[in-house]
Design brief:
With 204 residues, the chain is an all-alpha fold. It folds into two domains: 2-172, no CATH class; 176-204. It has eight helices and no strands. It has helices spanning 2-14, 42-49, 63-73, 83-89, 111-125, 131-143, 145-166, 174-196. The longest helix is centred in the last third of the chain and has 23 residues, at 174-196. It is elongated.
Length: 204
Amino acid sequence: MECDSQIDSVLQRINRDKNLPPGISEGKRKAIRHNKPHINNLGDHLLKIFDGKDATKLPGITDYNWLQLYTEVGSDLSRWPSEKHFTSWLGLSPGQDRSGKKNKSKSKGKPAVGQIFKQMAHGLLNSKYIGWGSFARRLRGRKGPAIAIKATARKLAAQYWRLIVKGADFVEKGLQAYENIIKEQKQRRLEKLAFELNRELVPA
């Protein structure tokens, strides 16, 4: 409680002369299920700091872990020239840590921050209604949980960089949209195979 009170005071001081951009309101925020900080209007503070860009639009991100990211990397992500630079610094790029296996090289960045994204990715594995959860589970089935979590964390970190730096809109389309994409890919593969075998597809 004392720590939360100090954080609250710091946020109030940072936002003393700031207002939300026109058309932006705090509105209803995602539920924080674990370790909810006792900070008044946390979402409002973060929206002011990030000029109305709302990271909680991304799957798996709540105001609490957004606050964690802010305390670790700040609000200016433009010092990383691209999302690839950012995910590499986080220790989430392919080739680093051998995609989830034992690390054989020293990281130049801050993999402890990458761990925050991994925690979010782990939560998405259990989500039934978020498309990225389906993505993570399919990858887990092929390559194991460590690689699936790291790949999903990298995907999430890249979207976070795009949102904060580029202001790109992101709307989670949910499980059905992702499943539709997978179904279309399977259909194309099936049609290609039927063509190669000189066969005709007949609906069941």
